[in-house]
């Protein structure tokens, strides 16, 4: 099957690098290859360009350059956000594996979500103890697309911080959010979100893979995960990924520029596909918060079907779609997110995560919808025989 | 000054990405952008190509694919090598900042070196205690180019391991070596070196920056530094850097292919430059082990001169050269390596690290030598006035 025949419905798992992003990175593999820590002026120029890329990124999220720590992706950023913490941590039960794994090293409470995958800020409030130092909530769930009420959760943290201050209790409490899945579709300015730390991933917004960052509000104390030459203000050592930072800046600039129009465009395409599938299959179950959902995401279950089998059939016809997240899918275990929202196993096991993006146009939605309907119909016929 | 006029004498700090390496990486930013953990066959193809790149790398160092952990560079690899360790560690005092920083978190002994920067395997032996779990020695020092007797040190570790086995002591002891500075010039096959863990850095061998690996001999127990989706056998989570691994494999393949001829070529060029400078300046002090030195490295001191000033003048004439390592140079502190080999401050402060590589040809050596002699002469005249 040729590339042109592929209908890619898995933008939440990976995105191709934008041509403009690649072009911006190119010089740093060639003539501008210098180590930004070297003392001569061509290297100092490279350092300035690296810092200027960080300035650009900082501006886009409403932070400052010296609050950014460049990393090798969201997973590392999340680990770094947790690394300064000795006390208790709170996170929704539907968080990404990286958050759950980092939390598991510490005293932690996982907070339930409702059937839409939404966490209740009151539940966060209840889970906070005097020892709580970190609350970590993804801006949007990678499987369902459900957008969490981060600003309301931030208000809970702020109230707790005030309470501690009033009592002369110096223990800090921070709010971290992984916005990897929201960038390019919703507002990720840190002042709007009210977070103390923000994780971003270039690989999810048409930038290079293995490039990410942790924005850390001035005053937040962290411990480095990787020690060495002292780069990134000592928080993350290693020769800087200049090409990566330049590429991430360009990717985020494009994501920000087209954010509103892309959200409107994808929402219309997503809703069209959703309506068609729901009209065609009475038994279909759409998950995620109807009004608080990324425009890119459609999580839909076909009770009784085997999603892994379905994916195989769809792939043979050029439609690439995921069951749950790529990480979990790879291990053949049932998604912890679907369990958390209370999907029955026979519903959960028939779930597709369809995620749209730049590669999705009207034609892809039309033809993809046709193929989905044919293959789902055929699978239902097969099991009813 | 145009790129063509630059004489780059700092290959130990950074290398440009080879054209062939870039070409090999290109498809993975575009049409082969899939997440290797996704379940459909185009993604499985990408996974196979990722694993095949790891196979290629493993073959070049004489290891197995499942013994490789891909990382974001040597600094992370070193941190990972140390992460499994609770006991005592031993390292030469001349190690890279990443080793010194990782060691500083643990009970540790730093072993002295001789005036050439060589560590004596007997000193390693003396430093080992019953609690020692890790010995970490760089294959070649990044400032001096001095090549350490890794195989002899490996024999010391092996004897200690045998001793513990005989006594029924289950505490492990491992040898780790950072071979970032040796790859492409000397034999880095793990069986020849006798190491249990090996760090490599693509950015030093004309591959992409922020790509590295830790080879971990089967049976060595490590603890992950970065937790999450469980990639790299759980030792290093995060979506795989497919383009990076493909690029590193190609870079190491080229490095291996041209290793012997390049070592001969660079040694002749280096020796020519060294002889000229030593003949011209009686006071010049060449450091590093005369017969155990990377062919690329010339560490030379001009007592009484201010190397930072000299570098500035050389740069104005297009000659790019370092004082000590790029990391240390950036902080304006005196190199701990030069202190360790006993250089007097007035000698150390007049030190240049000249490191040759693919961008170095006869003409660069001739013209670079002319400029070096003119500028050093001029600086000596200035201070003698």
Query: How many structural domains can be distinguished in the coordinates of chain A?
Result: 2
* Tally of alpha and pi helices of chain A: 14
Q: Give the strand order, joined by hyphens, for the main sheet of chain A.
A: 2-8-7-6-5-3-4
Output the CATH topology of the largest domain in chain A.
Aspartate Aminotransferase, domain 2
Biggest interface, residues from each chain = A-B, 69 and 69 residues
CATH homologous superfamily name of the largest domain in chain A? Type I PLP-dependent aspartate aminotransferase-like (Major domain)
Helix share of residues of chain A? Answer: 40-55%
CA radius of gyration of chain A is 22 Å
Largest sheet of chain A: 7 strands, mixed
The amount of beta strand of chain A, in percent, is: 5-15%
Pick out the low-confidence regions of chain A.
none
Can you name the CATH architecture of the largest domain in chain A?
Answer: 3-Layer(aba) Sandwich
What is the count of β-strands of chain A? 12
Mean pLDDT of chain A: 95
- Helix/strand-derived category of chain A reads alpha/beta
Order of helices and strands of chain A: EHHEHEHEHEHEHEEHHEEHEHHHEH
């Amino acid at each position: 099957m040729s590339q042109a025949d592929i209908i890619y419905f898995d933008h939440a798992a990976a995105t191709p690098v934008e041509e403009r992003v690649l072009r911006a990175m190119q010089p740093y593999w060639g003539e501008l290859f210098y180590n930004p820590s070297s003392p001569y002026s061509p290297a100092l120029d490279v350092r300035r360009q690296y810092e200027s890329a960080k300035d650009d990124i900082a501006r886009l999220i409403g932070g400052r350059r010296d609050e950014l720590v460049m990393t090798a992706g969201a997973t590392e950023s999340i680990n770094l956000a947790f690394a300064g913490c000795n006390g208790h941590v709170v996170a929704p039960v539907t968080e990404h594996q990286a958050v759950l794994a980092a939390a598991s090293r510490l005293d932690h409470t996982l907070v339930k979500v409702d059937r839409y995958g939404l966490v209740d800020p009151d539940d966060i409030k209840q889970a906070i103890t005097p020892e709580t130092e970190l609350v970590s909530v993804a801006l949007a769930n990678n499987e369902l697309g459900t957008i969490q009420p981060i600003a309301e959760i931030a208000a809970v943290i702020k109230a707790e911080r005030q309470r501690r201050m009033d009592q002369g209790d110096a223990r800090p409490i921070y709010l971290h959010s992984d916005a990897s899945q929201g960038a390019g579709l919703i507002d990720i300015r840190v002042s709007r979100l009210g977070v103390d730390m923000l994780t971003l991933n270039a690989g999810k917004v048409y930038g290079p893979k293995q490039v990410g960052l942790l924005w850390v509000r001035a005053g937040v104390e962290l411990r480095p995960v990787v020690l060495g030459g002292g780069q990134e203000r000592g928080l993350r050592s290693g020769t800087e990924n200049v090409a990566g930072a330049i590429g991430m800046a360009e990717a985020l600039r494009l994501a920000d520029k087209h954010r509103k129009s892309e959200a409107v465009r994808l929402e219309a395409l997503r809703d069209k596909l959703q309506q068609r599938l729901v009209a065609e299959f009475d038994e279909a179950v759409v998950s995620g918060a109807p009004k608080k959902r990324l425009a890119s995401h459609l999580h839909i279950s076909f009770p009784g079907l085997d999603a892994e089998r379905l994916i195989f059939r769809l792939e043979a016809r050029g439609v690439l779609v995921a069951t749950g997240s790529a990480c979990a899918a790879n291990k053949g275990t049932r998604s912890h997110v679907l369990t958390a929202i209370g999907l029955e196993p026979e519903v959960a096991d028939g779930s597709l995560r369809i995620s749209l993006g730049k590669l999705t146009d009207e034609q892809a939605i039309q033809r993809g919808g046709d193929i989905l309907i044919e293959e789902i119909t055929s699978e239902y016929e097969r099991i009813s025989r």
